[in-house]
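User: What would this chain look like folded?
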Amino acid sequence: MPLHAEKYKQVILYLCSQLGKEVRGKKKLAKLLYFVDFDFFEKYQKYFTGDKYKALPMGPVPVSLNAITREMKKEKALKIESVNEHNGYNATEVYTCLKEPKTAVFSKEEKEMLDRVIKKYGSLNGKQLEDLTHAEAPYSGTKPSEEIFYELAFYRGTDFKNND
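Assistant: Here's the prediction, encoded as C-alpha cells.
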C-alpha cells in the first residue's frame, strides 16, 4: 500500500484548519488520523493516507506521522511547538496550520469522511480518543507494537448512517 504523502499533508492541514487552526497533542492528531483512515477503509475498502499503524501503548499510531509533520514544518505549512501545560507532565505538541488545505485533492467521499471524523471526534482530547481506540477491534486484536491491519476495521461495525 503506497503512502499518499501529499494527500496525508492535506489531511493534517484540513484537520487543523477545521479545529480552530490547531490540533493540541500528538496523541490527538494520531487518533484522528486513525479514525480517518480506518473509517474510510471500513466504509469504502480503500486507503486514504496509505499509512501503516502500530499498536502502541497509547493506541494506534501512524508510522509516517513524524516524517510527514517534519516535512510540513520544513515546507512552512505547519508549525509544531511543545507547550508545557501542566507541571509534571510531558509537553504537549501543538500543530498549527500555516497554510490552507488544498481540498481539491480529496474526493467527495474523502471530504465527507474528514468532516464526519471532525464532527464526531474533534472535540475530544487525546486521552478520550485513546480510550475509544483501545476499545476497538483493530487495536485490541493486535499484539503490542505490531502493525494493525486495515482489514480488522470490518470487525468494528461502525454505523455510517446519518453521517454521525
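Strands lie at 22-24, 53-56, 59-62, 78-83, 92-97, 147-148. If you want, I can go into more detail on any region.
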